[in-house]
Amino acid sequence: MKQYRAYCFDLDGTIYKGTEVIEAAAQTIYELQKRGIEPYYITNNASVNREDVENKLAKMGIVAKRERIYTTAVASALYCAEYHASSHIYLYGEEGLRKAFAEQNLRVVGPEEADVAVVGINRESTYESLSEVMNVIRNGATFIATNSDKIIPTATGFGVGNGSFIRLLAHATGIEPLYIGKPESTMLELVRESGGYAKDEMVMIGDNYDTDILCGIQYEIDTIHVAGGVHTQAQIQQREKQPTYFVENLTELL
Description:
Blueprint: E1 6-9, E2 16-17, E3 20-21, H1 23-34, E4 40-43, H2 50-59, E5 69-71, H3 72-83, E6 89-92, H4 95-103, E7 116-119, H5 127-138, E8 142-145, E9 151-154, E10 157-160, H6 162-173, E11 178-179, H7 186-195, E12 202-206, H8 209-219, E13 222-226, H9 233-236, E14 245-247
Parallel strand pairs: 1-4, 1-12, 4-5, 6-7, 7-8, 8-11, 12-13, 13-14
Antiparallel strand pairs: 2-3, 9-10
Helix pairs in contact: 3-4
Pfam families: Hydrolase_6, Hydrolase_like
Organism: Savagea serpentis
Protein name: HAD-IIA family hydrolase
């Protein structure tokens, strides 16, 4: 297998499942670090920020550099800091999203003042709260979605992903959002810019074809699908575009 300078790992389903680390992933990251290669961590989870991910990985025995962690909360805040710096932003999500926007000193407001609505996973969603964000969008706010994941891995199987809530809101409003997370390339572009990499020096690694693998394919970098997550190798082999590599566990990268 080709060696790379920038190994971009998905988190949920690739490095851990829920609160349980995948031992092959931890071993692989440790070996890469011994070789002087510090990985990147690319997650569609908008409920967490860099500090949250750093702390979670540390509890699993993985030492991650904070500046190499990209969540969709962080990426959405960086996007809005560049393109909506003077906007009034309504956030629908969890604490990680709010922290990321606070770190960028963006103007976060209530539903009546908003001209931008950023929607991330909210596991306390209710009929009333979804109706509120729907009306913010219907009233003209720019609709931004942190990611389009239909489902997300959990320790016991899968949970409803942010993308499923987004489809509900898009159907109710008739408005399609701008997506930030995988398979869009925003986070990979942030990685490339941060390290000055060429695309042939980067690889995207994950278990989900529709997010991780398509993200790498569309960004025109190599991809590695790891078994045991959202999609099986047999399912992916039915797709038109294939990953660069399939592995049963991440130690095969070594």
